[in-house]
Amino acid sequence: MDNYNIYQDYDQILFKNEVARGTRQLNIMGYSPSGESGDTSVRDLKTGLIYVSGSPSWCFQKNLQDARGWERFITNTDEEVFVPWSEPTCEWYMHVAIYRKRPDIGAIVHTHSEWASVFAICRMDVPLDLIGEGLTGVIPCAAYADAGTHDVAENTAHALLHSDCCIMGNHGAVCVGRTLDEAFAKVAWMEQAAQKAYYALLTRKMR
After folding, report:
1. Rounded to whole angstroms, how far apart are CA atoms 41 and 124?
2. Comparing C-alpha atoms, which of 173, 177, 178 is closest to residue 186?
3. Which of 8-12, 29-33, 64-68, 146-150 has the highest mean pLDDT?
4. C-alpha 76: how far from its chain's center?
5. What is the DSSP-derived secondary structure letter of residue 181?
6. What is the pLDDT of residues 10-31, one digit of tens each?
7. How many Cβ atoms from other residues are within 10 Å of residue 160's Cβ?
8. How many CB atoms lie within 10 A of CB 91?
9. What's the longest Cα–Cα distance across the chain?
10. Which positions are annotated as active-site residues?
11. pTM score, two decimals?
């Protein structure tokens, strides 16, 4: 029989509930308009455990707003599975790959938000010199690979080596931070940056 009452000390419960909160926020904040795409994770820097969006297949949420803490998937950077009854997001390999390459972070948010998705569809970097904040460089766009594969995981992790935000080619976007709230703040900034850059590029073409 599956044991749903494991990883139940105080810190573990907090981490599971934090991922559930982040999963719900994706839909509430409009970063998953359909309520069916995107995922979040947090890492316990003391134990190395990674808590990821997921749920048992027999009660898989039809909407991200239904996420509950006890259902979360738990793994580590070696891709060990600690709760085999929880069906993780198909992008859990991506979360693990990012944590391997970024030991400084504790949270990841993967979105299918509107403006970042425009650049994802075009497989374009977001040029930051166009957004009027005195910035240079780009929000990088990771090379395309099929969703849920180790290839897309490695491509995305590589794009985040020197950036806390990236576009996923023909897919979505990812932001990282020390905490889930910090990662979500970067998602909000990235959406605004992508919108400004899109209109700036459009205006240039119209001149």
Report:
1. 26
2. 177
3. 146-150
4. 16
5. H
6. 999 999 999 999 999 999 999 9
7. 23
8. 27
9. 67
10. 91
11. 0.94
